[in-house]
Structure formats: C-alpha cells, structure tokens
Amino acid sequence: MQTGRYILILMVVLLGFSLLFSGCVEETFSRVEDPVEQEEDTEEPEEEGLTEEEERQLAEEARAEERRQREEALKEELGHFFVPLPADEPADNPHVQAKGIYVTGNTAGGTGRFAELLDLLDNTELNTMVIDVKNDHGLMTYNSEIEIVKEVGANRATPIRDISALMETLNEHDVYPIARVVVFRDPHLPEKQPDWAIQKKDGSGVWRDRSGYGWVNPYDKNVWDYNIAIAKEAALHGFREIQFDYVRFPENARRVDEEANFPGSEGKERDEAIEAFLAYAREELAEYNVHISADVFGVISTSWGDSDRIGQSWERIAPLTEIISPMIYPSHYGPGYFGFAVPDANPGGTVTRALEDALKRNAPLENPGIIRPWLQSFTATWVRGHIRYGAEQVREQIDAALELGIDEYLIWNAANRYHKDAFLPADKAAQREEAKKSERREAGHDQLGRTAEEALKDYLEAMRRTRWREAYAWQSTTNTMDHTEFREWIDSHTASLEDYEITNQSSAGDNVEFTLSAELKFSEGNLSLENSKFQVLQENGVWRVRPDNEFLEILTKDNGIND
C-alpha cells in the first residue's frame, strides 16, 4: 500500500518535469523560427528629426560664426582701417536715372535750407542728392566710428548730428543718396599723417599748393585704404552710391614737377596711379552693395591721354566706374574753346560740344561708365564776358544733354541755392525724354544725331584724311585695340583711302550693311575694290563701322598692288 503511494508520487513528479521540458523546447524553437520578431524586440527607437525652425537657427548660427571669423581676420589685416562687413542679405540697389543737386554737410545737417531742398525734389524731376561725407577740407560731416578717422581727428565739428535720422528722411522722400568723398585733395590728413602726403623735393616736408594746402599722395596705399574705409562706412549707413571727387593729382603740373616728390611712385605714370586706386576701390566695395562714380575734369573728354598730367585720362577711368561725371561747367573752358569766344556765355553750345566728345570717347570702350555730367548753376563773375546763370541757363544745359540722349545730370551750386523753374515736374520730364527717344528711333539716329549712312561717311572720311582719333571712335574693333595701338595701326598703313562710293544699303534689325567701291592708293599706284561689305551697328549709343576684312588687310600689305 505504501509502495504504491510512492510510485504514484514519482509518476506525478516525472510528468511535471516532462511538461516543464517540453515548454522550454517550444520557447526555444519559437525564437529560432521568428528572428524578425526578435529583431523588433531589440531595436532602439529612432530619434526625431530637426524641425525647419531648428535647421534655420543652426544655419544662422553657422553664418554668424563665419561672419565673426571673417571680421576678426579683417581686423587683423586692416587694423585701424577696419569697417564691419555689410548685411548678409543686402537690400535691392538698382540703377537710378539720377537727376541731382549738390548738398553740403552743413545744409544736410540743418533744417531750413534742407527742408526747402526736400520740397524742391518732392515737386520736380529732381530725385538725387550728392551729400558731402568727407568734404573739401578733409573732414567728416558726421561722426565716423572708423578708428583711423578718430585717430587723425577728422570727426572735428561734424554738422550732421544724426546720420541715421538723415538717411531715414531721405528714404521717406524717395531721394537717391550719393556720398561725395573728396579723395586726394585733403588739407587735413597731411597735418596728421605727413608721411602720407606729397613731399617737397628738397626733403623739407609736405609740399603745398598755392593756397597753402597739402595734398595726400595718390601713390600711397594708406591713403587708398583711408578713403575706401570711409566709403564702406557710408554704404553701411545707407548711401547707395559712392562718388569719388578729386581723384587726381594737383593741377599746374609744371610747378608740381619742379617742386614735388611722390614716394612710392616707382616709375608709374599718374593716370596709372588713379586707375589702380579705382580698381582697388571697386574690388574692396564689391560686397557693400553700392554703385561707384567718379568726377573728372570736363576737358579730359576732349583732350587725349593725361595731357594736363593730373592723372585723369578717360580711357583709364570710364571702364572702372559705373558712372563718370565730367564737370563740364561752361565757365571752366577758356576763351576760344569749342569755337566760342566766351564758353560761359554759351551754356547750351558748350555742353553739347563737351558731351559729343564724351560720347565719342565712350564709344570704343568695353562697358564704360554711364555719362552723368555736372552742370553749372552759378554765375562765374571772375570770367571776362560771363553771363548771369539763372533758371533759363540751367535748363538750356539740361536740354542740350537730353538732345544727345543723356538723361542724367547733377547740378552744382556751392551754396546749395537752386532755381526751381529750371526743373520740370517728374511726369513732364519723363514724357519729354520718351519723346526724344522715339524721335531718334524713328529717324534711325544715334545719340549724336547721325544715321547709319552718315556714320559710315564719317568713318570713311576719317580714314581718308588719316584722322586717327575720329577713326578710333567710329571703327568697331570689338575692343581688341586701345587708342595707342589703334594709332600705331593707322601709322603702319602702306595704303591710303583715296576715294569711295556707296552703292547699296540693306538693314537687318539694328545692323545696317552697306556695299561700296573704294580706291586705295599705294606708292606704286592705285587699287580698286568692288562690292566691299561694311557693317554699321550701334555700340554704346553711337553708330560704329565694322569694315570689310579685305579692305583692312590691304591697308597694311607690303605690296597691295601685286597681291
């Protein structure tokens, strides 16, 4: 009985072990059969991605850090010339058809006169103010934060107390603001940094002009960096254009040559120094979102090269500026200039002749600056035979420019007194400008008022008479020759154009093709060309001529008769 009981207990225990073992085996097999389930059980949950806002914030932080590093590097490189970088996303700054007036710092920093000028701009075609930032005395017109400006004391007695408020007012009145920076005529800087100035040849110190003023040295890079730093800061304040004035050497070159020394010139010509400064300024200001213009003597549009030896030649300056402003004040031309006994007494005629020359000088250049002249609004009492300049004389100059397709201008009066009646309401001025453009289009005229055929005749006459200056303006060379190379090419001719006859004309869009016969003269006889094809096309606002290749080749052949 007891033995049976033990057997029963043993069987129950064995059965329990059996069930336990089979359960373990099933669990093991189930894991082997379902590996995917095992993977899911052990997989860590994915992290959530960054939101758009978080990504934007990180990108901004990266840009800010990059900007900080750049500014630190610039501080190290530029030292006391350092100016902060511009905004990462600058405002739009499209070209403006500027019609402006000159405004001194004293006027801009005042109330009464400045309010009158704002009213003048609000109610006429005028839309621009050229405001002194660094004036003719070498002084700032507002308090600059540039270290070097503070070091040399150029912030002395600044008339514009709140530059931000001034810029806001200009913006409210939709005024296009241009910062005038007087560059190399700086009477202040030589007193503080004499090593940066033009020196006396005898080594006794700073050279001075007849007024007793020192000039800074246009060859000195410190002077470049000083003025460019001021231009950068003006851009940061909201000026949309930098106008460099007195980008030249002192006048009276003969006296200067006798008395002055220019450290660092190293054989470089004066117009090369001015060209180098403007190229450097253009590079340095590139990211500051400003247009660059330069004022030049009016006579350089007529004279060739740096004839006055002041460092200004049209061909070196015009391609480096977006706007070139010749100061073509009739009072500044001597007796007999342009055939006028007193150019000052002939405002319209003087402006016409000066701007015709400027258009000719721009014609052969690749991407030259827009011509925006300075016009006279003052009476030149010191000129013998002068006339009084009022609204009529100012308007006569504006209209003379418009006749040549030049619809931008700046008006100069040192006291900032302007004649309201000289200017039209904006809508009437726009209508007049459009009418003039339509007249030119319908007549097939260029800005000089010539048809394509008249332009071709001008070119052929220049070639026949070997007037290289005229031929250079009229011959389309696709910018492969400068004026010096062109003159050498003219001088190398072994044949000359004796006579020509235009036999046919056909047009295709803006291009006009002419067929002509030409008689070429050699030392040994003449050669006739028949059916020569000459293309006439508009470049930089004027009709220019692309001659037949055979015609050009024969001009310089060693023996045109026998070839």
UniProtKB/TrEMBL annotation:
Residues 31-71, 429-448 are annotated as: Disordered. Coiled coil: none annotated. InterPro entries: DUF4015. Residues 56-71 have a biased composition (Basic and acidic residues). Signal peptide: none annotated. It comes from the Bacteria. Residues 35-55 have a biased composition (Acidic residues). Residues 100-418 form the DUF4015 domain. PROSITE patterns: PROKAR_LIPOPROTEIN. Pfam families: DUF4015. This is DUF4015 domain-containing protein. The lineage of its organism: Bacteria, Bacillati, Bacillota, Dethiobacteria, Dethiobacterales.
